[in-house]
Design brief:
Layout (H helix, E strand, L loop, with lengths): L3 H16 L5 H8 L3 H13 L20 E9 L4 H9 L4 E6 L6 E7 L2 H12 L4 E9 L7
Helix pairs in contact: 2-3
Length: about 150
């Protein structure tokens, strides 16, 4: 188990990467007050432990390659169908997030598509899946902020 000071430095490292995953190691080392080699070692350990599973690109509003329309779908499932539904959702690139929920709905899914008609097709596909009892969809209009 990591010492409390090490756990704090790990969390600080994760916070720096969350803000900007492209922050140079030398800059991270300076902010943490450790050597560049120490930062590399911590990163390697956090990746090996599965704390850091990967790095990604987040597109800005002005990027022409970013998908143009997204929706949130709440899904109510038939009993014991969660595994099958999640497996099918995982295979579609348009499904960017999937969470289980407490309450009336069982899953919270975010989908992103290039066009409204494609979005409509994916929403219909989800609603028609075996094991899906009911869905409620909301189209996302504007991102106010993201962390």
């Amino acid at each position: 188990m990591a010492r409390p000071s090490d756990a704090k430095k790990d969390q600080d490292l994760i916070n720096i990467l969350t803000a900007n995953a492209r922050t140079p190691l030398a800059h991270i080392a300076k902010r943490l007050g450790v050597s560049r080699a120490t930062v590399q070692g911590r990163l390697a350990r956090l990746e090996k432990e599965g704390v850091i599973a990967g790095y990604t690109t987040v597109f800005g509003k002005e990027n022409p390659h970013v998908t143009t329309i997204s929706a949130i779908i709440l899904i109510e499932l038939e009993v014991k169908q969660q595994g099958n539904v999640i497996a099918a959702l995982r295979k579609r690139a348009e499904v960017v997030h999937c969470y289980t929920l407490s309450g009336h709905f069982d899953l919270f899914v975010k989908i992103s598509c290039a066009t409204a008609s494609h979005l409509d097709e994916i929403i219909d596909w989800i609603a028609e899946m075996d094991g899906v009892r009911r869905t409620t969809s909301s189209i996302l209009l504007a991102r106010k902020f993201e962390r």
